[in-house]
Amino acid sequence: MDVSDFFLEIEQITISGQLYLPGKEGNYPAVGICHGIPSGKPGDPNDGGYPALAERICREGFAACVFNFRGSGESGGNLDLPGWMRDLGAIIDYLQGLPVLDSSQLFLMGFSGGAAVSVCVAAGDRRVSGVAALACPADFNSLLENGEPQKMVDHFREAGTIRDAEFPQSAEQWFNEFRQVRPIDFVAGITPRPLLLVHGDSDDTVPVDHARRLYRSAGEPKHLVIIDGAGHRLRQEERAVTAVLDWLKRWHRE
Q: I need a surface site. Which of 92, 114, 135, 155 has the fewest CB within 10 A?
């Protein structure tokens, strides 16, 4: 396995990522892994995080790309969901330009907010071969209906995803931009490429009905996996990861 760091400059923001390859030479199908909105809570020290997931995918013969959206991890900038969509577009550009990857086989695997961004971007970008969306919100209406713009800004500032004192210029405008990221309006655009929806029936962050709504709106081919007893953190749920790996193997072309 070969692991290398990369850095992209997007709108004067540095996006940090790592590329995992099964070997130094090949024509590998690729999986872009899109994380969710960070909670700001300390993680489990025994959890290998997204790099461990990338290694597992890589052992199955796929290249795996993990990266931090703006406002997260080692990347610069501030949390901005429409900005996350532009970040993902640049990641796709980057992966498509790598000769060691098969440009006709690029899948996205997104979690929660990253799943929402994956669905919205893939609907308009035919370079994406398929999407696995885990714990994906159909929209952010519940967050918007119950939230107050400045309180949300303060929350994410405390969580470390809003870092610059002058950002956002308007809390109200920033708050309302979440409305632009509505997978329920975009999911039908993924067809005829495959879509996998994975959701825990005990998810108290994004209720399981979101997955059912997305499934009803999606075109074929589509597959819905509801995992009994699973919560929101599906990256740590073995049944969810196995479902995605089985799906990737099914749709990957040798």
A: 155
CA 157 to chain CA centroid, nearest Å? 21
**pLDDT tens per residue, range 39-65:** 766 556 667 799 999 999 999 999 999
CATH code of the domain containing 139? 3.40.50.1820
Q: What is the pLDDT of residues 21-30, one digit of tens each?
A: 998 778 999 9
User: Structure pTM?
Assistant: 0.94
Contacts of 175 by beta carbon, 8 Å cutoff, 6+ apart: 144, 147, 149, 152, 153
Q: How many domains does the chain have?
A: 1
Q: What is the pLDDT of residues 126-179, one digit of tens each?
A: 999 999 999 999 998 877 766 788 988 999 999 999 999 999 999 999 988 988
Peptide bond into 82 cis (omega under 30): no
In Å, the largest CA–CA distance within the chain is 51
Q: Which domain does 84 fall in, by range?
A: 2-251
CA pair distance 11, 3, nearest whole angstrom: 26
